[in-house]
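Could you join me in thinking about how sequence relates to backbone shape in a protein? We need material for that, and I hope you will provide a protein of your own picking. Once you have written the record down, we can walk along the chain together:

…
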Amino acid sequence: MKANPILPRILKITFAVLGALTLLVIAVVLALLWFLPAQGTYDLGDVQFVPTAGLATLVRAGGEELKIKSLQGIVTLSHDHFSNGLDASVKWAMVPLILAQGGFFFVLCELLRRLFRNVERRESFSSINIRLVRRVGLAILLFTLLSAVTQSYFGHRVLRYLGPSGTLMGREVLLTPAPTGNTIFQMSSAQFQFSLNFSSLLAGLVVLALSEVFRQGRQFQEENQLTI
């Protein structure tokens, strides 16, 4: 009898450890968010700044003037800006974002742990493993949707917190959602944006397609065994 390969065992342990660490990180991040509100910095994500009075002017070192329609940057605020911590509405918007991303990584690690546990048992193309591969694809698709929803809600709360307009480098600017790339669908307004990531959707569909190939392959194998 051949010995079980060591790689599936290593991967099984690795994903088990990563899953446990993910839960720990989620708990620590939520605790820091709520119980240490005045420590460190807060990254509020990408925001687009659009000048209200025509185009902004950028003067290069050589004296050449360039016209800018909009600026895009990451808004990061330090604890020096707050007397009582970050606004509660923004913190509440962070919670589903953290849970969606952390929860997806934990579920993915758990599914892969079970998958390689079965591979270690030489049950690579069992019906259980095929279902696990299908669940991985569904988890990716579900995360793509949940991530889009939570990101949209968080971005909306951030823009509500920052306000519809402000002053940047002496110019009044409108604060709008920053455009995102690699999207298959995008809907936006002055203070709201919803977009679906193309790569994530494609990855989920590819995994689902592979699970169907494995399912049909196993079905043909069982039919051949019955024929013989």
Notes: The first strand starts at residue 41 and ends at 51. The first helix runs from residue 6 to 35. The chain has a mean pLDDT of 84. Residues 6-227 form one domain.
